[in-house]
Amino acid sequence: MFEIAQIDESGLPRLIGVANAVRPRARATVEGHIDWRRQATDTVWLVATLDGVDAGAGIGVHGWHSEDGVVTTIALVLEQTRGRGVGTALLADLDCWAAGHGARAVEGKVDEDDAASLAWLERRGYAEVGRNSTMVLDLTAIDEPEVAPPPGIEIVTWAERPELAPGMYEVAREAYPDIPGEENVELEPFEQWLSIDMDGSGDRPEATFIALSDDGVVGYAKLSLSSSDSERAYHDITGVLRAWRGHGIASALKRAEIAWAKRTGYRQLETWNEARNTPIRILNERHGYVIEPGSITMRRDL
Description:
Low-confidence stretches: none
Number of domains: 2
CATH superfamily of the largest domain: Gcn5-related N-acetyltransferase (GNAT)
Helix content: 25-40%
Number of strands: 12
């Protein structure tokens, strides 16, 4: 017999244990989920037990980098307890929670090399709406690159120039809608964007790099860091104003991130690229990033 219970922060280690057993490459952390809850409009965490032992987990997120009417829901079931209805029950509870927030559809991610989970979702009416490749750079195998921005461009950190946040926001307003799959996601007002995108537990001003032309912001890039992982850093966003693209600014920002991570002692950089985002994928390949199995975004109408 199984039971599903909603948990609070004190129960997060149980949810993380299930999540990392099911999707080890995702490397979920308690810190990350608490930060996710802070940034979202609402979040729910569920743990399913089978005969008193944790068997699965469910996550629902409303109002975080999703288009209007779409809620993120994730059902995770340990391999040894599958086929006993735990995942179906978790999805049903998450559907009710999402519907309570006015959702017209739910979506979540599945590892692209997890054929069994993909088939399970497809049998329940999910369809692919996006695909992200994972790209990894081995920092131990390279020398620290020279940033070498194009003529007339200066690269600074946000720590050095904290007053440049409004300029970065203007870049974000152009860059985010140009990411395939993000066309219908509405960017938050400035203060909310600052809190959600720039003030998370993994965001650090010294790891945020800004491209300037005549003291005006024309692009920026930032890394996301985890206090529980001192060897791996993650790329978050690289954005350049449309009028300034094609001049090597994104490449200079990428080299600034690589140089900082190498100098700071990280051993690996990891990023996720939407499969349709050809320019950024080519940019990463030129800098030595190697493709690894990624994730598929699956969506189902409610």
